[in-house]
Amino acid sequence: MSPPRLQLEGITKAFGQTQVLDGIDLHVREGEFVSILGPSGAGKSTLFQLLIGGIRPDRGTIRFDGTPLAAGEGRFAFMPQRDALMPWRNILDNATLGLEVQGMSRAKARGRVLPLLADFGLQGFERHYPAQLSGGMRQRAALLRTVVQDREMLLLDEPFGALDALTRTSMQRWLEAMWKRHRWTALLITHDVREAVYLSDRIYVLSARPAQVLHEIRVPLPRPRAAGFQEASAIEANLLDMLFTGQTFAGDKP
Amino acid sequence: MPKQSSFFARVWPAALAIGFLLAAWQLYVDLSGLSPTLLPSPARIAQQAWIHRQALLDNSVPTIRATLLGFSCSLTAAFLLSIVMDFSRPLRRALFPVFIISQTLPLVAIAPLVVLWFGFGLMPKIMLVALVTFFPMLVALVQGYQATEQEIALLLHAMGASRWRAFRLARLPSALPLFFAGLRISITYAVVGAIFAEYSGAARGLGIYILNAKNNFRPDLVLAAVAVSATLTLILFGMTALIQRLAMPWIRFEQAAAR
């Protein structure tokens, strides 16, 4: 088995008196889709802020390819919870943002993005402003902006949380198909059990705050995973069990 | 075109209200038989304005010049200072109270002093226009930068953007809606500021024209000059709206989506 690309060991973080993360261990291998599943407010987003260098852990180490992660190393492409598209840039220029920040000229960055528009269902909309697009299209544009940066790993922070149920399901199917083709190494934060089962190779189940890894489970299902698959339902039920049990006892911990 | 009709739909109630007020004014003057040296009727003001159109025009030019120059200076200063204040918290804390105090100065007291120090030329007018228009724009810009969406800031940080880069890519464009709101407020002060400066001492200008008309017991000409000044302000106000449309082409879609 390949060595892990990203490895977190004993990550602990508190904000003032509030303990948010309590000894998180997790890893992601090359080409693996891993989800972090936990209740709202468990500190999942704090984990991502540690990775993209906004804050530092109180204890624990973060390694990438075996070496400690330095601030501003730029290994991750990050997709925030809401799409965070700039309303004043059209879709094409929103998608090129990361490349421009990396120092690429706008013309060259556009050249990189244009051939990808069709795959992301955005062809013909490159000159539209975000306000003219539906929620699903905006989210695809945000994902395009993320993957075109060509970083080593994708960090997806509840990317479909703001969408309606139908759009979310269709986006999950679409993302699975895209992932099958590109084999991105990806870490997804979600509180949607079905989404985690549908997309992931492995799932870490976090407790309520202070967050600990309660379980690590494998999802051995073949892809594509049609929704309503019997085994998927069993795993979903199992995960929900874990989450609720974890929540009940989280408050009793000293 | 639907856009045009919606423009007229918005304008006609205001036009009707103004027309009604003018008609009531005219009727009152006609029926009460008040002397025009006390309260001239709108018709008389219009007639006298037409007769004195050359003088009004000659005196408008220096006022317009002072307004535009003062406003440009004020805009430039507000923009540069807003950037400095956005980057430096200590400076923001040090300067903000100073600018707030500058807003508490009564113009009646300051205007003659500025004329005393800087003479009857253009300089004191520019300074007074800048004084009254600077603060709304500065506040609008500083708050506009702070209105940047948190997630966009986080995203740029994750992309490795420098502070300056993030300012240009996100904070500056995020400030545009509030900036234009501040611009509209301060442009309505600009003409009044220039007239007040001229009132305190000038060779020519609407302010001095008003002063002379008042001293000659010609309220009709005072009000004619006031009408010119109001028209100037409305034109400037309309121009800011036009510039906003050009600078923020996406805003139409956001408004359409919100409807």
3D architecture notes:
- The complex is a heterodimer of chains A (254) and B (259).
- Mean pLDDT of chain A is 85; it is low at 249-254.
- In chain A, the strands form two sheets. Chain A has a six-stranded mixed β-sheet, sandwiched between helices.
- With 254 residues, chain A is of the alpha/beta class.
- Chain A has helices spanning 44-51, 91-95, 97-101, 106-113, 135-147, 165-182, 193-199, 230-250, and strands spanning 4-15, 18-29, 33-37, 59-64, 67-68, 76-79, 153-157, 186-190, 202-206, 213-218.
- Chain A is globular.
- Chain B has a single domain (41-258), classed as MetI-like (MetI-like fold, Orthogonal Bundle), CATH 1.10.3720.10.
- The mean pLDDT of chain B is 90.
- Chain A binds chain B through residues 49, 52-54, 72, 74, 76-78, 80-82, 84, 86-88, 97-98, 100-102, 129-132, 149, 155, and chain B through 149, 151-152, 154-161, 165, 169-170, 173, 176, 248-250, 253-254, 256-257.
- Chain A: InterPro entries: AAA+_ATPase (IPR003593), ABC_transporter-like_ATP-bd (IPR003439), ABC_transporter-like_CS (IPR017871), ABC_transporter_ATP-bind (IPR050166), P-loop_NTPase (IPR027417).
